[in-house]
Each structure stands twice: as structure tokens, then as C-alpha cells.
Amino acid sequence: MIEYEELRADIDRYLMERFKYRKSLVCLTVDNIIATRRNSRVDLYLRIRRIESRFPPDCLIIARLGFIKERIGHGTHFLRFLTEVARKYGFNYIGIECANIKSSAFAKKLGFYSIDGENYAIAITNLISYFQWNNLS
């Protein structure tokens, strides 16, 4: 779908600018998964779901997100960016799939609700409020 390719391109541009990559880093699979190619600094696996599943409909689901340098704001910065992109493409939720201890603490800090103890979701409007309230750039 062309819309998903545009979404992929937006994420690719963001990662290239943020992490100073010169070549494309992100691909879109046939089953609507955005993933980074093997590299040393960023690991991203993002599911695009329009239909309801364990997660609410119109949800961008982070299945894997990692940065070589942790706890310096990359995750929060990416979530702020992803919130803007989600709005642009008509997504209403962001989810975190199979959260470990670190990512569940991160999700709770940002106001995500637990779906079943290991999966989390949040409405885009709530994330926007969080970022405005905390004035995070």
C-alpha cells in the first residue's frame, strides 16, 4: 500500500537524520511490518495494524525497539516522532508488544495502559497530552 510506503519513508528519514545514516535503513515487508536492516545503532520492528486484534484498531505496534546507547532519550524522542506520524496517517493508538522489564517501565512512565500484563497501548491523544504536559522536545 502506498500509504505504508510513505510511512516507511518518514521513519527512514527520521532515523537517517537522528543517527546520521547516509543510506536507507528501513524496509517495509509484504505483511506491513516496518523493520530496520542490520546496523549497529538502531533496532526497530514496527507492525502496522488497522484491524482490531489484541491491540485496538488503527494501531502502530512496536514489537522491537532498541538503541545501542540507552537511557539518553532516544526512545522518548522516537515516540514523540511516532505520535506525529501516527496522526498524519490516521492511526489512533501506539502499542508495545511483549514488553520486557525496561520497556514496560518506559510504557508506564509515558501513560500506556496494560492490555494483558505484557502488551501495552495508548491513545495518540493521550501521548500528545503527555508530551505537551511534560514539554519534551
Automatic annotation (TrEMBL):
Superkingdom: Bacteria
InterPro entries, sorted: Acyl_CoA_acyltransferase
Protein name (Swiss-Prot/TrEMBL): GNAT family N-acetyltransferase
